Every structure is written in C-alpha cells, then in structure tokens.
Amino acid sequence: MSPTESRRGRVVLVTGGSRGIGLACARRFQSLGDTVAVTYRTAPPDGLAGEGPDDVDLFPVPCDVRVPEQVDAAFAAVEEAVGPVQVLVANAGVTKDALLLRMGEEAWHEVIDTDLSGVYRVVRRGLGAMVRAHRGRIVLVSSVVGFLGSPGQVNYGAAKAGLVGLARSLAREVGSRGITVNVVAPGVVDTDMIANLGEQRVEQLLAMVPLGRRATPAEVAGAVAFLASEDAAYITGAVLAVDGGLAMGL
Amino acid sequence: MSDATFDKFKACAVDVLQVPEDKVVPTARFGDDLDADSLDLVELVMALEEAFDVTVDEAELEGIETVGQAYELISAKL
Fold first, then answer.
1. Which domain holds residue A63?
2. Strands in chain A per DSSP E
3. pLDDT tens-place string over residues A94-103
4. CB–CB contact A128 B46 (8 Å)
5. Active site residue A156
6. Count of domains in chain A?
C-alpha cells in the first residue's frame, strides 16, 4: 500500500510525544481521526514500543531534537510510512534549573539546544513539504515562563520566549503558502516537569492562578488541536495562553 | 549552453514555479516575468541542488535575477 492509501486523516507529528502535554496532543489528534507520529527520546509511549505505522495507534519514532541527523531520520521514517507531515507540534522540551549565578554553560546550552534550537531543527526539516503543498500547520509549545519569568529558569525562559520570535518571523515567511505558525503557552500543567518543581513552588504558582488549579495535559492539547484545525485558518503568529489566567495580558 | 542541462534546469523551474515551459528563457526575470517570490526562489534553489547534486551558498545567490544568471551559476558547478 502506498503511504497515502494506508493513512487516515492528516499526518501529524508531535515531538516529545511520549508523555505529558505531547502525549495528550497525540491522543487528541488521534481522536480526531488523524494519523499521528510521536518522537521520543527517553522512552516510547507506554505500550507502543515497536508498533508500526499500520497500527491505528500512535507511530513512535526515536529522535533527540539536539541531533540534526536524528531529526532528519525521524521525518524520513514518517514520510516513508504515511507521507509528509501536515501538522507539526514542536513540543519536546527539557528543564535544567539553577539560579543564574550557579547556572553553568552546560545547563544553559542543554536547554537552549533542546527547547529552542530543537524547534528550529524540526520546523526547518518539516517546512519544505508544507511549502510545496501550500498548506500546513505548525504549533510551538512555549510556556508562561517565557513571559512571566521564573527564578531558576533563565535558560528555559529564554528558550520559551525565543519561540515567539521564531513563530512570528516564520509566520511572515510562509503565510503566502497558507501555512500558519502559532504558539501555545501553558501555565501550571499536571506533568512530570511540574512535579520536578516541588510542591512548595507549585503551591506558590497556584496561588497566582485565577482558576486556582493546574491544567490537565488534555486541556493544553485542546488548544493545540484548535490551532491546527480548519477553524483556526486565519490565526497565525498568535500566542494562546492556556494558563488559568496566570499570565493574562501577556 | 548545453541543451540537455538547460532542459533539466527548465523542468525544475516549471515544476517549482508552476510556469509554462516557454516562459523559462535565459532573459526571463524571476520576479517580473515569472512572478516568483523569495520563497519560490528558495524552493527552486533546493530543487536545483537536488536535481544537479550541487550546493549553492546563500552568498552566491546575491544579484541573481534572471533565468540565465541562475543557469550559469548551476552549470558552472557541474
């Protein structure tokens, strides 16, 4: 069967799709009838190791977004199996927190390399097919930290703020091709990343959230799916906060 | 100008720029005559790089405005 015969819906690629917000996005697109590939670095999504693209379930591909060859290989695997990526969700991200005075070069570069340069790499690799197709959806997962700041997260905040400039410049480059580029900025979401902040810091943040609770990963996925949908065809270069009001006015 | 090489060049331009074959002549200007924007040109360069197995630096594209100039740039690398 040719790639296009075997797939259903759109071809969606979610980086960092093995858990947290990425996995929730993947599941959401899947429920919309799309064919969804997820990249993972540490481990494939539970129960999905080794399953191929013919499965109606998620299609896992290994990829460390810090390595250009791995990004290329991941896209090539998806293209060969199900065709070019039509919706790209750049979600893969890491934190390596320390107060700036204690933040060495390594911690700075590791986070910038994954959270900002990694997005450059996946978007650059995926964009050509969208330009040729004269359509496409790119959604970058940022963070309210890029707007509000957060002590100990100079690296992460810089990377996440950088995504907005990336998205908006790219939106101007490819708007004429019907490709939209948008940013989702989650606040306090129930994920491993937030768990690592420690209960005390989370309580502190929640005290500033008008809605008074964390988001579920699915609530972020809903915003991502919207920006990737036909309903959002006239939205590009936008930043959509999904933060319970934490950073309202950003 | 080798016919076979120019035909291959022309095929790339026709495919990427979606223009009729007879408009792809050496004097044709990408912007005015072929209605190509900067993104079209990037796409064309990428297609030419692949078709001719050459690499083109951004700096080399400076001042390239016509089909003939672009053809010379590529064919000089073969």
1. 3-241
2. 11-14, 35-40, 59-62, 87-90, 136-141, 179-186, 239-242
3. 999 999 999 9
4. yes
5. yes
6. 1
